[in-house]
Design brief:
Layout lengths: L1 H17 L7 H16 L6 H23 L5 H13 L2 H16 L3 H9 L11 H48 L11 H25 L2 H11 L8 H12 L2 E8 L2 E9 L6 H36 L2
Antiparallel strand pairs: 1-2
Helix pairs in contact: 1-4, 1-11, 2-3, 2-7, 3-7, 4-7, 5-6, 5-7, 5-11, 6-7, 7-8, 7-10, 7-11, 8-9, 8-10, 8-11, 9-10
Organism: Aromatoleum diolicum
Protein name: Cobalamin biosynthesis protein CobD
Pathway: Cofactor biosynthesis; adenosylcobalamin biosynthesis
Length: about 300
């Protein structure tokens, strides 16, 4: 348990100090590998079987390599686990992207804020007003708090660096293939469903984390009443609890691929602004400290209980 805490602390510290690699990011290489697989397999097997095979071929070799390297030397697990957790985490990058939206929005530079929020969301941002930009940015921080932070931490606690790697790669495949379009409706089914399965427990722990850090009563009430209305079984709890914890109103209309979608409401309270984006980042950051502190207490309690048992 103590080694788990040390590895978690080291991985989080590396992400905070270094952020994501600016050159030769492994996820970029993985994205190219996944794109090559899709281009060659989907024409031959455009169904669910082909998508499942592509998912396994995309992730399996890297997962196997991580496990082999981890056992290559008695001390290798330290390097591999900490390194993979660092690569799986995106807390600093998420905070930087959020600030790149919040800063121009707070300064009244709506055009720049629209461009910057368009870098991290899939909706059309060209006609968004200030509240719409703040809404999109806040929602993205809350949802990616699970995808880029707490999900990786959860699977690291379950299965070490290999677990964090599997989660992040599966999440990347969902972002690439998990669309209900003619191209991916069958081929991308496995990527979307497996991401849902891997995300089920982390998403609810993320929602609980937001509730504990923020306005707890509102967060739990919004989670209970609003999350079931969302199509995604995992994004619903995360964003509903997060919006309630922040005391802002999210959800509503958004334009995706040229079509307006009416999404269920999220949260309660005021309309979001630049401060809401920054508050969502703090919610994520304080949540990481809560997880780290909880692991630290658990790590210390194990040897302490042993000492008490021999007293």
């Amino acid at each position: 348990m103590i080694s788990l805490f040390v590895k978690l602390a080291a991985g989080i510290a590396l992400d905070r100090l270094l952020g994501e690699p600016r050159r030769w990011h492994p996820l970029i290489g993985f994205g190219r590998w996944a794109g090559w697989l899709e281009a060659h397999l989907r024409p031959l097997l455009p169904n669910r079987v082909g998508g499942l095979l592509a998912w396994a071929l995309a992730i399996g070799p890297w997962l196997g390599l991580a496990l082999v390297l981890r056992e290559s030397h008695p001390l290798a697990h330290w390097v591999i686990d900490i390194g993979l957790l660092y690569l799986a985490l995106g807390a600093r990058s998420l905070a930087q992207h959020a600030e790149a939206i919040a800063a121009p929005l707070a300064a009244g530079d709506l055009d720049t804020a629209r461009v910057r929020v368009g870098w991290i969301v899939s909706r059309d941002t060209r006609a968004l007003d200030a509240a719409g930009v703040a809404k999109a940015g806040t929602e993205s921080v809350l949802e990616n708090g699970n995808d880029a932070v707490f999900g990786a931490l959860f699977w690291f606690c379950v299965a070490g660096g290999a677990g964090a790697l599997m989660f992040r790669l599966a999440n990347t495949l969902d972002a690439m293939w998990g669309y209900r379009t003619e191209r991916f409706i069958r081929f991308g089914w496995a990527a979307a469903r497996l991401d849902d399965v891997l995300n089920w427990a982390p998403a609810r722990l993320t929602a609980l984390t937001y509730a504990l850090i923020g306005r707890s009563r509102d967060a739990l009430r919004c989670w209970r009443s609003q999350a079931p209305a969302w199509d995604s079984p995992n994004a619903g709890p995360v964003m509903a609890a997060g919006a309630g914890a922040l005391g802002v109103q999210l959800g509503g209309a958004a334009i995706y691929h040229g079509r307006e979608e009416q999404r269920p409401p999220l949260g309660c309270g005021k309309a979001p602004d630049a401060a809401s984006i920054r508050a969502a980042v703090r919610l994520m950051q304080h949540g990481m400290l809560l997880w780290l502190g909880t692991i630290a207490i658990a790590a210390l309690s194990v040897p302490l209980s042993g000492l008490l048992g021999h007293a």
